[in-house]
Design goal:
By secondary structure, this protein is of the alpha/beta class. Helix content is about 50%, strand content about 15%.
């Protein structure tokens, strides 16, 4: 059985770990504190229980997936014998540099090192390693166990073999992959954040309520979730970080963070994880 490690048991990490475990991989779910890991495993349990309830997952498959998940707060042991590492830590380049420097030291030479970043430079992240040809972006979408898209990001030194292996992993995970070059926001975040920020400006200007703005995109354009609902799910603080980065990198006013977003974040209203954002949860 091939082993994968997922670094970060939060919103994205636990979902990525679940996807890998359901695909038949042995998965080490790492975080810096055991309480974070246990919270992530609890979320996986909830997801799988809902799957069983809806008839989309059999009890046997649920139990098998859970048995393949192994909690860890020791990154060195979590990387032992892995074929793939997926980093899903906060969107801070310093944190990612530190993680990738350790992944480079602890992982087998042939292992692929992937980042789930939604906007940061994969090329810059890869510089923390001595194997930039083995580093790529594997950007999953929230929630990872439901969303079918996987955005593979080719950095400046990513090899063709690494891209091919990332596509193979994506297929085993049941994802439909796209390949983009390492550019600010890639394809998905650049477009998605643009829509989300404009929805915030419309709300700020009193154009319509949050509910009606979201309904317009769901019923008029077929979005599965409205841009403000999605921001609550992703986290307003995460969206603010990404918008700030894209505004600085692309020099476009389209990505200037709206005042309403900055205010809500300063008030601790971060979306679903804090029980209030553009909606109450």
């Amino acid at each position: 059985m091939s082993k994968i490690t997922v670094i970060g048991a939060g919103t994205m990490g636990h979902g990525i770990a679940q996807v890998a475990a359901q695909a038949g991989f042995d998965v080490a779910l790492f975080d810096i504190k055991d309480e974070f890991v246990q919270k992530g495993l609890s979320k996986v349990n909830e997801n799988l229980a809902k799957g069983v309830e809806k008839g989309k997952v059999t009890p046997a498959d649920r139990d098998a997936a859970l048995a393949r998940l192994h909690p860890s707060t020791d990154l060195k042991s979590a990387c032992d014998g892995i074929v793939l590492a997926v980093e899903a830590a906060p969107e801070k380049i310093r944190i990612k540099h530190d993680i990738f420097e350790q992944l480079d030291r602890f992982s087998p030479a042939e292992a692929i090192l992937a980042t789930n970043t939604s906007s940061l430079s994969v090329t810059e992240i890869a510089r923390a390693t001595k194997r930039p040809s083995h580093v790529c972006g594997m950007h999953f979408f929230n929630p990872p166990h439901i969303m079918k898209l996987l955005e593979i990001v080719r950095a400046a030194d990513t090899s063709d073999a690494t891209v091919a292996k990332a596509r193979e992993f994506g297929a085993k995970f049941g994802k439909d992959s796209i390949l983009v070059k390492d550019a600010p926001g890639f394809a998905s975040s650049r477009l998605g954040v643009c829509v989300g920020l404009e929805a915030m400006r419309m709300l700020e200007q009193g154009v319509a309520s949050a509910e009606d703005i979201d309904k317009a995109m769901k019923l008029g354009y077929g979005f599965p979730m409205g841009p403000l609902e999605l921001t609550d799910l992703v986290g307003l603080d995460v969206r603010l970080d990404i918008a700030t980065y894209l505004h600085a990198e692309l020099k476009s006013e389209v990505f200037r963070p709206p005042e309403i977003l900055k205010r809500l974040v300063s008030e601790g209203k971060l979306g679903k994880k804090s029980k209030q954002g553009f909606y109450k949860h």
